[in-house]
Description:
Blueprint: E1 3-10, H1 12-16, H2 20-29, E2 33-40, H3 44-50, H4 60-67, E3 72-80, H5 82-90, H6 103-107, E4 116-118, H7 122-132
Antiparallel strand pairs: 1-3, 1-4, 2-3
Ribavirin triphosphate is lined by residues 54, 59, 63, 93, 111-112, 114, 117-118, 120.
Amino acid sequence: xxxxxxxxxxKPDAVAKNVIGEIYSRFEKAGLKVVGSRMVHLSQExxxxxxxxxxxxxxxxxLVAFMTSGPVxxxxxxxxNAVAHHRDLMGATNPADAAAGTIRADFAQTIDExxxxxxxxxxxxxxxxxxFFEEAxxxxxxx
Length: 143
Ligand code: RTP
Ligand code: MG
């Protein structure tokens, strides 16, 4: 299987709950390596650009308001099959449907405030990683 990179965002609700470390711990225990990491309070423009694919959806305005409501942690995760592996760890978009033991089942209450984001394909991952990180700010592990 190929080593991939994916973009993770710990959303404002999870940052506010003070569970950054617990979420990172799940990535690490699952064998995903953090190779880029930054905390940022998104501007409206940055959040709208990130979610541009959802611009016409009814939830877009609320999504942008939520994502700009407090700081987030954006990370680049690296590992075998990282895109799908990370989404498995996150669980379903709606925490009510998320499998037991997933991040959203354990840390999210609603579909609007669902703790984490993860790229949904290698193509999205490439766009999303470069949306937040210069190549020089990603640090591949040599050991
Ligand atoms: P994400 O992009 O955050 O990793 O989540 P996802 O792929 O599971 O969900 P996506 O369809 O990309 O939607 C992006 C975010 O928009 C919010 N959403 N709300 N009220 C709704 O019906 C609804 N649907 C989506 C969620 O916060 C979702 O994570
Ligand atoms: Mg998505």
